[in-house]
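Technical note accompanying the year-one report. For the benefit of new consortium partners, we illustrate the data format agreed upon in the data management plan: each record pairs a sequence with a structure-token string. No post-processing was applied to the example shown here.
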Amino acid sequence: VSAGDVAIVTTARVLTAAERMTFQVLANTNEAVATATATGTTLSVTPLATGTTTITVEARDLDGSVRTLQ
């Protein structure tokens, strides 16, 4: 579409949160303490033993913007 053009939208759909964002577990410093998985918009952490671990998760939107969290 260029300046001065007219665009007619005949259908539209609202994206769910899962469609707008993707999540991925990038790292887990101690999988003996806990495991982590990312599915859709859900991060699941399963404790396995007493201790400490750092889980790094990446979130990416449809535009390719990325945010990494620990």
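Partners are asked to follow this layout when depositing records. The two ends are 41 Å apart (CA to CA).
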